[in-house]
Amino acid sequence: MKVKDQRWAARTANLLLCLTVVFFTGCGSVANRDDAGMAEVTEKAEAAENESILTEEDRMLMRDNEFLVGEVETGEQDMDGLETAGLNDTDSDLDTMEIYERFLDGERTVVWEERQVPIAELFWDNDIAYCFYDIDGDGVEELHIRDSVAYYAIKARDSRPEILFEGWWGYEPVVLDGQCGILKYYQEYGSEWIEFMTVNADGSTHKEGEVYWYDENGNGNMDENDYFRGYSDWKEIEMEQFVRYRDEQFRKLSGNELEWKERQLESFATWQEAYAAYIERRYFHPTISEYVDYALIYVDDDEIPELYIFTGGMATGEFVVSFYDGHLGVMNRGRIGLHYMEHGGLLYSYSGNMGFYPCNIYMLEKGEFSEIGTGWWKETGDGENIKFDYFWEGVPVTENECKTRIAELIDMSACVEPEELYTKEEILEILENYEK
User: Fold this and answer.
1) 391 CB contacts (<8 Å, ≥6 apart)?
2) Which residues pair with 232 in a beta bridge?
3) Helix (H, G, I), strand (E, B), or coil: what is residue 47?
4) Exposure check for the chain: N or C terminus, fewer CB within 10 A?
């Protein structure tokens, strides 16, 4: 049993090391990794930080999770008896759709983070959507799966499911008039990032374009004085080029021909069972897993608590998991400092760093989280004459106006933060022995 404030100073030095762990979003196989592309991402992040415009997307440490299924020795036992190969003697007789169905049912595993995992461990949410489409042009359909954060393209190779592509925050497959690819659209805090790529039959990808906008002058509008970058060399571009490319991608998105079906990954009889299962399947990188702690908190007005997960750093942030009518709802904020109104159904956080401080207000209703207010303030000046510019829903406001907007949505003085945090072993014991 621990108190977060008592541990914070002792953990700071270790967390600085943890925040350097980089998880690149991957696609294709190991043989097709694009080292130049990784260097490009790093260069962009460094350039953005030098100009003090590092966005939430830039801060988020992405993951490179590509491993060949064949690299794992078959027959080795892992994950409570699941064979790491995920196969048996009759699997060679399965057709592609049977492989996908067994993977969706949790009966087949894929290699992810150098481990064999079932589908439930790939996603934050318990509710997913899936569809089938041949996105790489080899004449065989792939299985496409997404939740509120992650998207995966799963391919059947040698009677085994394999991750063809993985994308987090804003990735989605699009198909229009027979042309297909993967579109990324990410918008947050006065910035937009748009990228479209195609996937080849060998698993490699080709970027057809990538553009970025940042509200450099802070007036809440896109104009010629803002920051625009894009295309393969990531050099400065004109606003018209950005708008033209964005509109082209929006047309693909609005006309997307894919038909998605909904599915629940796991079903649970009780909230205790649901939370224990989520804790067990929620993977954190070994460099931060020792800092992860848990609590039971009461956010909405029912008698079922929510599960709070403190990961120990800005890169992975905090999770709040709800249980309602047999369903799990999950919210992840890529920062720390979350407060909530006990039994009031409201949460907020405004912690930040590097002169940038976002304020997000959330509502929990019937097991679903929604963001009902977004603002931010950032430092400006030459170091000696520092001031803050304030924004609410992308529009410049005064400090008092920003405070008024927040007060209209939530009483911050009535909010609390979790006091008692528990280790994984402790919270699992609490759930097991919780009075039914």
Assistant:
1) 189, 190, 218, 220, 375, 376, 377, 397, 402
2) none
3) helix
4) C
Express each pLDDT in 184-221 by its tens digit: 999 888 899 999 999 987 778 888 889 999 998 888 88
204 vs 190: CA distance, rounded Å: 32
Q: At residue 264, what are phi and psi to the nearest 5 degrees? A: -100, 130
Closest Cα to residue 184, out of 175, 176, 172, 192?
172
User: Residues near 402 by Cβ (< 8 Å), separated by ≥ 6?
Assistant: 359, 375, 377, 390, 391, 392
371: nearest Cα among 400, 399, 331? 331
- On the CB side of 164, CA atoms within 13 Å amount to 30
Q: What is the pLDDT of residues 337-354, one digit of tens each?
A: 899 999 999 999 887 777
CA-based nearest residue to 321, from 269, 275, 265: 275
3-state helix, strand, coil in the chain (%, to 5): 25, 35, 40
Buried b (16+ CB within 10 A) or exposed e, 298-332: ebbebebbbbbbbbbbbbbbbbbbbbbeebbbbbb
Q: What pTM was computed for the model?
A: 0.74
Give the Cα separation of 206 and 329 in Å (integer).
35
